[in-house]
């Protein structure tokens, strides 16, 4: 065990104190909470994820043996938002992400993924592959009457050409959805692995499917914490029964070494509904798994 107790860890993610993103993987909180969930409250998500990450600072990853302390990381704090102005907030997020070579974003609600993909698409000059862990397809054309919100993020990502839908795969889907939305999503070429299919086939087969869909070209990872069953992540705005166990998500991530991920986010942590930090710790762990893939 380390000489410093985890409760004394600095407040940055994994205790990171560096704030200069040059040559580093940047970590940023994006406390966006549009309030279109059944239970609003994601604004405090980044703080909770950072606090829970103190449990992960003592030692290397037991599979890859990557020690996060050896990684070039920089916690650059929170992105500025235009409170009450959804398009304005999305524009600000995109602007702040544009100059970052590799970003791990701590949400905030899932709407933050859209401007992050916009910034990355412009920087790379080509559509990205996309791996999504989620309970919901998030391909509604609008969300409770709003064009831009957490339920429409991938509709816009597809229609704006930010992602190659043929290289997009969603894991853990299980929420109620209109048939026309489901059919539209599949018609674009998206691969959907429902939670039931995930449980039936297992993480090894799912990871192989992910590798097949994404291929070798640049890709992005978006992890909505509600992909996990509420037993493992109660602190989220739209919990759905029948989800993934934490270990199942970890088992997939640990089988994705070598893929060309250019960034990731973990979103939809709502601390007001959490218990004993289990949701925040799960979110911090998924970011840690991503950083330590090897």
UniProtKB/TrEMBL annotation:
Alphabetical keyword list: Hydrolase, Metal-binding
GO MF annotation: an example: agmatinase activity
Pfam families per the UniProt record, alphabetical: Arginase
Enzyme Commission numbers on file: 3.5.3.11
InterPro entries cross-referenced by the UniProt entry: Agmatinase-rel, Ureohydrolase, Ureohydrolase_dom_sf, Ureohydrolase_Mn_BS
Enzyme class, spelled out: hydrolase
Domain of life of the source: Bacteria
NCBIfam families: agmatinase (TIGR01230), PRK02190.1 (NF002564)
Family affiliation: Belongs to the arginase family. Agmatinase subfamily.
Entries under PANTHER family matching the protein: ARGINASE/AGMATINASE (PTHR11358), GUANIDINO ACID HYDROLASE, MITOCHONDRIAL (PTHR11358:SF26)
Designated name of the protein: Agmatinase
Organism name: Falsiroseomonas selenitidurans
